[in-house]
Amino acid sequence: MRRARESDLTALLALEREFPGDRLSRRSFRHLLARAKADVWVCEEKGALLGNAIVLYRRGTRTARLYSLVVAASARGRGIGQSLVAHAERHAAAAGCEVMHLEVRSDNPGALALYAGRGYAVVGRAHGYYEDGADALRLKKRLARALGSAASTKHGPRYSTGPNAGERRYAHSR
Ligand SMILES: CC(C)(COP(=O)(O)OP(=O)(O)OC[C@H]1O[C@@H](n2cnc3c(N)ncnc32)[C@H](O)[C@@H]1OP(=O)(O)O)[C@@H](O)C(=O)NCCC(=O)NCCS
C-alpha cells in the first residue's frame, strides 16, 4: 500500500475501466495527485496496480470522504478492497478526521457488504445520483481516534487549510 504517483497514471486509468460510468479522467487524476486535498492510495503487487482508494478532505471539517474504491477484477476476493479502506481510514484519522463518509450505488451489493463489514451505517439516499440515473446510498462511519495524530500528510493538516477544490470538482463518488 503506498501513495500514487504521476507514473501510475496509465495504470490508474486502466482501473477506472472497472466502473460502469462516472469515470475519472487523466486530468482529474493529475489534479488529485498534485494539488487537490486528497490522498490517492494504491495497492501494488509485483509492479502491477491491483486497486486504489481516493480520499478527499474538506476545509473546516473533520470529515473525510472516501470518494472512490476499486480493485481489478482479477484480484477481487482477496481482501484488497478491505485493506485499502482500512488504510484510508487510518490515514484520515491520523490527519485529524473523525468521520468518513461516502456514496455507493444502491445496486452494488459487494461494496455495500464490504462497507457494512467495516462498520459503515446507511444515513441517506440520493435519488438519480449517477450518470445512468441509479441511486446512491450515503454511508458514514466514526473513525477510531488516532494515537499521536500529527497529521503528517501530503498537504499538512487538512481540516484547517486551503480551498476545498477537491470537493467541488469531484462531485460524484462511486
Ligand atoms: C467492491 C470492491 C472494491 C471489493 O473489492 P475486493 O478486494 O474484492 O473486496 P474484499 O476481498 O476486500 O472483500 C471484503 C468483503 O467485502 C464483501 N464483498 C466484496 N465483494 C463482494 C461481492 N462481490 N459479493 C458479496 N460480498 C462482497 C464481503 O463481505 C467481503 O468479505 P469476505 O471476503 O470475508 O466475505 C470490488 O469488487 C470492485 O472494485 N468493484 C468495482 C468497483 C466498485 O464497485 N467500487 C466500489 C464503489 S463504492
UniProtKB/TrEMBL annotation:
Gene3D superfamilies: 3.40.630.30. Pfam families: Acetyltransf_1. Keywords: Acyltransferase, Transferase. Residues 148-174 are annotated as: Disordered. GO terms for molecular function: acyltransferase activity, transferring groups other than amino-acyl groups. Transmembrane segments: none annotated. PROSITE patterns: GNAT. This is Acetyltransferase. It comes from Sulfurifustis variabilis.
